[in-house]
């Protein structure tokens, strides 16, 4: 008997999750007193829920209120707070009716894709990229168009690249700061791309999940420049709420009701308690800025220490908490390099295959949201590994 399986069975794994499993297994076999595994594979802040959010959650739990379903697009107080955030941070006037609260940024992608595109539509994006952009699109029958990008364009796509495409894409995904490179578009580059997409009837999806985690360069939002763009953001990174699974979208007027209908049917509503925590997190600026300062310090350590550890060909990240490094001259490919890194140096890192099927074999990603002492220790171990090669 051969029962049918669906199109979803062709979706590749999100390999970083497999690295987590391997690193967890490795930790279990460590002898007592052995040096710990440095967890630099995953982009998960170890800083925990901000204190003000903890207090808000405790108050909600203590109040005896039934924390039930909320509106499909989220609690109106949180949507209004998110809209106010656009005024605070970017000076942009966004109507709260355009905000949709989602299950992290991850929950926003299927809603955005289904609201804006049809099966067979072409979605352009730069490589290297965050893998679920492509894997979710493919699972939904969309066709990704990969634009190979390098240091020359700061790993970001250009208008010329879009103009050269035939057929013209139906959508473009931008990420600034980007994962895995940490690269950013300058505000004027984002503006030019957003305006070009609007004029050319290309639906722009701007993933702004790493806003707040920038180290000197200004971050603009696509919502400032285009009313037709879909902006995606999350409480997972700057707000240090990864496991609370709460994010948001800024929607164009023409997609609000569609996304609402999709969200009601797919999820009924976002998590009530996570929305309480998220709303309070907006008032935890001091703590969140201290987290950012910690990442900035780790970034400085890496920028200073990586060349001495044998890694000089990389682009200093403008934002997020990743460095994307070349393995050329270090190993046959990045998978064998990452295996060696875990086995011999006790560092868990992610192979570039996840981010760039064509060129990723020469790269790996280190995440520096680990404690600063771990980042320092990783540099020592990388230097030792390099000397032993
Ligand atoms: C670029 C990017 N977008 C989206 C996500 C998904 O984030 P979440 O679903 O936790 O909000 C991540 C997670 O690492 C990411 O790096």
Question: What report would you give on this structure?
Answer:
By secondary structure, this protein is α/β, with parallel strands linked by helices. Helix content is about 40%, strand content about 15%. The strands form 3 sheets. Strands 2-8-7-6-5-3-4 form a 7-stranded mixed β-sheet, with helices on both faces. A 3-stranded antiparallel β-sheet has the order 9-12-11. A two-stranded parallel sheet has the order 1-10. Helix 4 crosses helix 5. The longest helix has 21 residues. It is globular and about 60 Å long. The site of pyridoxal-5'-phosphate (PLP) has 13 residues, from helix 4. The site of pyridoxal-5'-phosphate has 13 residues, from helix 4.
Detail the topology: elements first, then pairings:
Layout: H1 15-28, E1 38-39, H2 51-62, H3 76-90, E2 99-102, H4 104-116, E3 122-127, H5 131-139, E4 143-148, H6 159-163, E5 171-175, H7 187-199, E6 203-207, E7 230-234, E8 247-250, H8 256-267, H9 272-281, H10 285-305, E9 322-326, H11 334-345, E10 347-348, E11 350-351, E12 363-367, H12 372-388
Parallel strand pairs: 1-10, 3-4, 3-5, 5-6, 6-7
Antiparallel strand pairs: 2-8, 7-8, 9-12, 11-12
Helix pairs in contact: 2-9, 3-9, 4-5, 4-8, 10-12
This protein binds pyridoxal-5'-phosphate.
